[in-house]
Amino acid sequence: MSRKHDMWTHGTSVQVQENGWGALREGKHTTVTPGNGPSKGWVHFAIPTPVVVDGAPLKARTALVRFRLGPQTSIINFQVWNANQYPAIYDQGGSYTNPIEVTLTNQPDLIGGIGISFRVDFAGAGAWIELFGAGIRFS
Asked: Which of 76, 95, 103, 133 maximizes the CB count within 10 A of its CB?
């Protein structure tokens, strides 16, 4: 199926789930640090989502995240949400590399906004992640 639409959100729009984590928003990105919070936790991007284009429902085809990892930092889980349902879950049990670009294998019609969530592991002192943006390719 042909690519019909891409939607992205900037790294400054990221939401941090864990209390105590720092999120320093600057012009080009957000830097997330563990602060006094837990060493593992979730961050979330809400992707602007066109549900219907030219009278036809869209499907999410590819999820993308651009980031830079600091020392002793990894992304250990990755999820994509279709409103309150999963079009895909990717928990490969290891570390994701930059950029994340995942072809979604389960592609139902969109029923609402898309959310990209991923779990970060800050494994030691000085750990951080810079988040530049996240997006979805639609068809």
From this structure: 133
Q: How much is the average pLDDT of 64-79?
A: 94
What would the DSSP string read from start to end of the chain?
----EEEEEEGGG-EE-STT-EEEE-SS-EEEE-TTS-SEEEEEEEEP---EETTEE-BEEEEEEEEEE-TTEEEEEEEEEETTEEEEEE--SS---SSEEEE-S--PBP-S-EEEEEEEEE-STT--EEEEEEEEEE-
Q: Is the pLDDT of residue 91 over 70?
A: no
The CA distances from residue 66 to 2, 84, 101, 110, 124, in Å, are 23, 24, 9, 23, 22
- What's the confidence (pLDDT) of residue 53? 83
CA distance 11 to 8: 10
* 118 pLDDT higher than 80: yes
Is residue 51 left, alpha or beta, with left meaning phi > 0 and alpha meaning psi from -120 to 50? alpha
Reference 17, options 90, 120, 112; nearest CA is 120
